[in-house]
Automatic annotation (TrEMBL):
Keyword presence, Repeat: yes
Boundaries of every F5/8 type C domain copy: 28-178
Locations listed in the record: Cell junction, Paranodal septate junction; Membrane
PROSITE patterns assigned: EGF_3 (PS50026), FA58C_1 (PS01285), FA58C_2 (PS01286), FA58C_3 (PS50022), FIBRINOGEN_C_2 (PS51406), LAM_G_DOMAIN (PS50025)
UniProt KW Isomerase keyword: no
CDD domains assigned to the protein according to its UniProt record, in alphabetical order: EGF_CA, FA58C, LamG
Domain EGF-like: 546-583, 956-994
Name of the protein in question: Contactin-associated protein-like 2
Amino acid sequence: MWRFPIPGVTLLLWILGVLGNLSTARSASQKCDEVLATPLPYSAFSGSSVLSGDYGAGYAKLNRRGGAGGWSPQDSDRYQWLQVDLRGRKQITAIATQGRYSSSDWTKQYRFLYSDTGSNWRAYRQDGTIWTFSGNWNSEKVVRHNLQYSIVARYLRFIPLEWSEEGRVGLRVEVYGCAYWSDMISFDGQGVMSYRFRAKKMRILKDLISLKFKTTKGDGILLHGEGQQGDYISLELQRAKLWLQINLGSNQYGSIQGHTAVSSGSLLDDDHWHSVVIQRYRRSVNFTLDQHIHSFRTNGEFDHLDLDYEISFGGMAVSSKPSSGGRENFVGCMEGIVYNGDNITSLVRRKKLDTSSFRNLTFSCAESHMFPVFFNATSFVLLPGRSDADTMSVSLMFRTWNPNGLLLFSPLVYGGVEISLMDGKVTVHIYVSQKQSTRVDISSGSGLNDGQWHSVHFLALESFAMLTINGDEMSSVRAALPIMIRTGGSYYFGGYFPRTNLSPTQRSFQGCMQLIHVDEQLVDLQAVEKGSLGTFENVSLDMCAIIDRCVPNHCEHGGRCSQTWNSFSCACEGTGYTGATCHTSVYEQSCEEYKHLGRTSDTYWIDPDGSGPLEPFKVNCIMTEDKVWTTVANDLPAQSPVSAELEAATVLDLNYSMSTEQINAITSSAEHCEQYLAYACRMSRLLNTPAEGPPFTWWLGRGNEKHTYWGGSGPGVQKCACGIERNCTEPSHYCNCDADQRQWREDSGILMYKDHLPVRQVVVGDVRRSGSEARLTVGPLRCQGDRNYWNAASFNTPASYLHFPTFSGETSADISFYFKTSSTYGVFLENLGNTDFIRLELKSPTTVSFSFDVGNGPVELTVNSAGPLNDDQWHRVEAERNVKEAVLQLDGRHREVRLAPPQGHTRLQLFSQLFVGASGGQRGFLGCIRSLKMNGVTLDLEGRAEVTPGVKPGCSGHCSSYGMHCQNGGKCLEKYNGYSCDCSLTAFDGPFCTEDVGGYFETGTVVRYDLMSDSGASSLREGRGSLSPLTAEANLTQEELTFSFSTSNSPSVLIYVSSRTQDYLAVVLRHNGTLQIRYNLGGLREPFTISLDQRNMANGQPHSVNISRQDRVIHLQLDHYPSVSYILPEASDTEFNLVKTIFLGKVFETGQIDPVIIEKYNTPGFMGCLSRVQFNRIAPLKAALRSGISSTASVQGVLVESNCGASPLTISPMSAAFDPWHPESAGAQFPFNEERVGRDGLNRDSAIIGGIIAVVIFTILCTLVFLVRHMFRHKGSYHTNEAKGAESADCADAAIIVNDPAFTETIEESKKEWFI
């Protein structure tokens, strides 16, 4: 049987109850579809004008043929309207239109307005704009629109915007809905309703509060409740925005702050009804204003709202704390107030609540005195005033989003007066044209384009002018006038378009005005509407259609929204996101992705969920040859002493540089995570093993779960690493520290169960005894791999696809993925709705398409690549659609942007499953899709592919796309999840073979690399098979030598390549620090030398050398200078025969050696740095420094690893086709058969005889050296770094032979031996 905890049952029952209420509401809404207009009498319909009696508004009923079959106005223009009085407030859910019966008159587009009072009209809005409804295209077809949200109103208006070209405006209408009734209460700013609780104190776990309000005042408290412990809930208007403030409790120390404040809406002082619903369960809150839901969690750690005595509506109760005062009461109307199931307005009507603070309690809402005028960019209102007067007085109220606009222009007898909004300030320009033209300027205010109502009063009297903003007389601005003005009698509000000699700096205004006064008299704007006063053009009277395009804020991730009248924009600087709505992250999702962009180890910002809610954060990325580690450090120093506390245990908290959610994002996507944990102890027990009771020490990990295993062990095993390996100090215990010894012991190891990581807290319990000491070390969290980045699926047939739940991206959607294919077309993904859809596809070998429909018709974006996309390499597709624009980007280079229409549907509504690969008969995709991320969520392609026929999890072949990151000859190796660079055949290290490997040579240090072992020589002589290029001799017709060095000493031998013949290659520094290259390939009396006399290279600076030869042509490049070519003489051979040994720093060789090298350059030896040394595919210095590399390299003397400060390599590595160690590519001739002789003319028998002679001579010389050393011994000591085995050898050369069994002597006809 399933068992649920009590809170879980409560939550489940509450959710079921809410769902039941919503279901009931939805059922009721579905029934709210009654015909409302047809039953009305003729007198309920009215119009702006009537063509004739038979075209009266009363005939404008759907499907009726009375009169002329519908309504038609006298003039067909945008000032006409058809009005319906429903004879009471109704809930309206749908509207329908029809043309005039059997005519050429119909309305193609219209707007829909509604009102409670027949004034102060509100336009129906949808998707953030004043909605334009599509109408009719003939006289008979009925076009019905179900409203996106229901409205409540008594009066309705239909405003024709476009009509039949063949006829005129013609209209028949119907309205659908149902009856509406609600208790209504009027608040005058004095009265406050208090709802007393049944108990003195209420401890509330969940709340459900709803109400509707309307007001013309932007500030006021709608509800308030508080408790003695500091808890409170408050709903308040501030500057026409609605703020919900809630505090479930703060602790007495202040470390837990429970205050939470959230705002919603704006421009709520418009005298229209607004609906509010507050749902709270524990700390989770849904705050809904006019269908916009804001979900959040309260701050702090408490779940209950503790209130005392009462909760008040319309203001703060008298019993509230004085400290809470200073806030204004609500002025306006409320209806439908429900608090946790109690209908407050009904209780007031039944006199069940205290309303004694009301002077005159009324259950109706007074009619508004607002009569706003709405201006667009082509509007104006011309009003008359006194002419030839010496006083000018004008005042008005305005609201706008635009920083600039013309409020008023009035021509004077001599000049004119302009009142404009400029950069958010009100500026007055007084033009004086009498005698000499002058201009007087006055300005006041700032930031007045904030959408709020602001008042302006301008007064010009006798010789001065005064400007007052928002009624603040103290900040009025005065200016002296050069002459007394004489009014012209005409006042243009909102626009001035005549072309005259005197023109204002601003021509038009977009916004609203009201309470216009001319000559101290309030203008009757209703008379203006009727045409009896003044004139107007392109204005909307008795309505203010201002829209706050920043509420709700479409700028995501903290982007700052700013707006003008027609649009909004987002400032994304400093957010870590980009795009029109700050939706797309500018950072990569993981260290793995940075590596595949060619980045090296460093600190990077990552954003694991892309456009999701998780903020970007910094991590350390460590790129190794085969892995990428993400590390997150904590603030606990290594070997932190654990001090005894007064409590029973000592608690050590660990803080990380990021939030819990951010760390969880790393661990959940990683393939492996680990964390080092060490406990050093002296008489301080750890886990109390074997378990005779609870452990003394434990740690808390992810989710604050308690764990009693230690580093090196695993979950459920209360042991340390020594207990697992059975090597503890005391075998009877499973931890070294549990032996409770006086000596310092340690238990350490790696925690590797990533679902428990990171370590958040360690509780140490045994440090209070006398003599007990402990030190704790918790290493950084280290995670490797990114399962999201490599999550891939292979689609093997055109009909194969994967399906996922419906994609949810109504107002903002982004999709990104990698693909590779050899096919020419195919659908990547598709999701459908009724008419809406979204699709991404490969349309041709060079074209990717992104198409969608949000209700405005299909839109398609395409990008074309310069090369084919079906090249079986990875390509990245990024698509985004938001309310501002749609963007498609391919491989980060090719991009197309399509702006959204200024008005239209913005919500993408889908219902089918999301299909990846193919759907609905579309052409299926053949190939691989990887790292498919939609709105920050990575889809598990591999998991779904494992259970789907025709689709395989994973995808191979990453080197074709990322192999170019392996540099300097590194080889790309395929991995299941990615690739790695094999640097073994290069002189470099690192994840991309770009890190120099070098060493510092002390004087006399020698690095020796032998190219052939005894076994190799034996195999060579017997002709068995081919040999590894790292151990085989060869005859070379081409070779390449690259290295870098830095030194301040000369002369010296940098590199010497010997052979079993007289052939050699040497690079030396001469006494003056210049470089010399010596080639001896035979055929010449003296070696071929290249001497570079132009500069001293022993200057302590790093230098790079590249020497390459092909047959007789030698190319030499130094540092960044151009390459220089040299030609070997015709007499010279072109083969470098039997390459034997590479020496670095000094020559330590037996056999034929150029005496010039020995005499001039070899002593005392090279002192300095050598790095990235590579001879063809051999890296001798790297082999000597890397103990893990099996090679024949050896070191004599002191060699310390260093990169020598070498500059980046600029010389291109050897091409794959040029491989001297592979005869099929380079023409090198490999080993000889038994009959073949060397170029010195010796056959194999001669070689054997020579070998015997060499052994005899070698023995004699060793004996002589031993005697000389014995005779000249003296007291003292010395230090040597000779290899092991030297102490048992008779001489230095013998030591080399003892240490290096691969060492073989060179056999020559004229034998000479040098001992250096």
